[in-house]
Amino acid sequence: MSSSSTLTSQSAHPMKKKVISALVAVVIGHIGVLWAVSHLKTPELKKIEKEPLQVRFVKIQQPPKPLAPEPKPEPKKAEPPKPVKEVKVVEKPQPAPPKKVEKVQQVKKAEAVKPLVNKPVQAPPKPVVAPVVAPIVTETKVAKTAPTPAPQPAPQPVAPPAPPVPAGPKSVSIGGSGVQWSRTPRPNYSNKDLQGESRRVVVLIEANEQGNITNARITRSSGLAALDEKILRAVRSAKFKPYKENGVAYPIRAEQPFELTLNPNG
User: Fold this and answer.
1) Rounded to two decimals, what is the model's pTM?
2) What is the rounded CA–CA span in Å between residue 228 and residue 233?
């Protein structure tokens, strides 16, 4: 019995030591943690600088008040119909149609009065009543007579038909029996424009009935465009006499040549 109790007592002492050592270690650990926590430095927090809020007051505009609708005009009351007066219609007697009076010219010559001839008185002559000569008037009421025939107008001579007008201008020559210039074209050029040699230009000209130039174009060129243009300007400023045949003016078409020679004096 004694041996068993000793064994149990010996086994119980190391268990107590272990429990006590574990408790001591726990207490020391807690103390160390508390010491470390007490010595920790609190982190410094940076101050946050906030900008001041800007406040802006806005005036709220009230919406415009709706306009009151215009009062509708009251419909006019229908006026009561006026009493209609009865008017008796009196038929007027229609006037008699006017009598037709034919107006004729009275013959100006009155009836000739027979001369009285003195005869021997054999018996008391019967009184001779001379006819009363009516005065000459322009209009009077006379008995119906046949109207005098109106004089017929003399037949007028028939004018001869006008000669037909040609559809286009007539081709004529310039000078002689053809068309004549009333203002001759005078081209202005120099030896420099001719470029050292004589040249020839032919222009087709069209004119109206009054002789005014209506169109001009080169049919044979001098070979120099500037020189041709000078000739055309001179032609357009010219004018023909009106070309007439049998007294009637016609539009015409004619060709005019120009001989452009060098000036020996430069």
Assistant:
1) 0.39
2) 9
Site of tokens 């201008």: 169
Q: Does residue 217 contact residue 203 with C-beta atoms inside 8 Å?
A: yes
Structure tokens at 262: 């060098």
Model confidence at 124, in pLDDT bands (50, 70, 90)? Answer: low
Give every CB contact of residue 138 below 8 A, 6+ residues apart in sequence.
105, 106
Hunting for tokens 């920790």 — which residue is that?
40
Q: How does strand 239-240 pair with strand 140-141?
A: unpaired
pLDDT in tens, 30-63: 898 888 887 776 666 677 777 777 777 777 777 6
**Length of the chain, please?**
266
DSSP per position, the chain: -HHHHHHHHHHHHHHHHHHHHHHHHHHHHHHHHHHHHHHPPPPPPPP-PPPPPP----PPPPPPPPPPPPPPPPPPPPPPPPPPPP-PPPPPPPPPPPPP--EEPPPSSPPPPPPP-----SSPPPPPPPPPPPPP-S-EE----PPPPPPPPPPPPPPPPPPPPPSSPEE--BSTTSB-EEE-------HHHHTTS-EEEEEEEEE-TT-BEEEEEEEE--S-HHHHHHHHHHHHT-EEPPEEETTEEE-EEEEEEEEE---TT-
**What span, in angstroms and rounded, lies between the C-alpha atoms of 206 and 189?**
24
